[in-house]
Every structure is written in structure tokens, then in C-alpha cells.
Design a protein that fits this description.
131 residues, alpha+beta, SH3 type barrels, 2 domains, five-stranded antiparallel beta sheet, 36% strand, elongated
């Protein structure tokens, strides 16, 4: 274990860096679980889903946000792919209109371009307002 090694060596710089990295990873894991109601374990050829129930009553789920956006004609900011950055989580966000929501994926539109995005790839979503 690197943490034990850093403690034994008294290397507080590396210990702090490693701890901060772990906290960031755990926070991203938690946020994904809140958004989706499950977490995803990807390791080599493994891609498994495990249900979680740690969302608080006021936390919004992905499907709820997308349904509301469709119903009210709102656009959404989406972060897809890898976890969003710690300092600026919306840096990689792109703005979309939700066209269709189905089990496991959604159809989005942006500037006349339509794209199906698997919901499992969404890391963050935020309602924006009128397109």
C-alpha cells in the first residue's frame, strides 16, 4: 500500500496528493450513484452495475431531469465520458435538447444534429432553460 509507505517515510506531500486523489474518486463515484441510482464497476472486460440508495430526497435522478426537460421544453447541459473534473465540473459540458428518452439511452439534439447517448455515459446533467 502506497499510503502506508508514505506514512512510514514521512512523505506528507505524496500522502496528501494520494489522499486528495482518493477523495476525488470517491466523490465522483458517489455523484454517479446519486444521479443514476446505481454505480458502475468497469475493470478490464468487466462492466457491472450495482444498485445504491444513498441519494437524499432532494437529489435529482438523471431520468427525472431528462423527463422534465422534455416536458417543459428545457435544454440540459451534459457531461459524458469520464468523470467531470474537480475544479470545474462543467468544463466539458455540452448543451442539448432532449428529444426522446428510452430505457438505457436518450436521443438529444444540438444545432440540428441528433445523437443517441447511452445514459450510463452521463456523468452530470443540469437543467438550463429555454433553448
Amino acid at each position: 500500500m502506497k499510503v502506508a509507505q508514505y506514512v512510514a517515510e514521512g512523505d506528507t506531500v505524496k500522502l496528501v496528493r494520494r489522499t486528495e486523489s482518493d477523495v476525488k474518486s470517491l466523490y465522483a463515484y458517489y455523484r454517479y450513484g446519486v444521479l443514476h441510482g446505481h454505480v458502475r464497476l468497469r475493470w478490464g472486460f468487466i462492466d457491472e452495475v450495482f444498485g445504491v440508495d444513498w441519494a437524499l430526497p432532494d437529489d435529482q435522478r438523471l431520468a427525472e431531469v431528462l423527463r422534465r426537460a422534455m416536458a417543459e421544453g428545457l435544454t440540459v447541459d451534459l457531461v459524458t465520458g469520464s468523470s467531470p473534473g474537480w475544479n470545474n465540473p462543467w468544463f466539458r459540458a455540452s448543451r442539448w435538447r432532449v428529444v426522446e428518452l428510452s430505457c438505457g439511452e436518450a436521443l438529444f439534439e444540438q444545432d440540428g444534429l441528433r445523437q443517441r447517448i447511452p445514459l450510463r455515459e452521463v456523468q452530470a446533467v443540469g437543467l438550463v432553460g429555454s433553448p
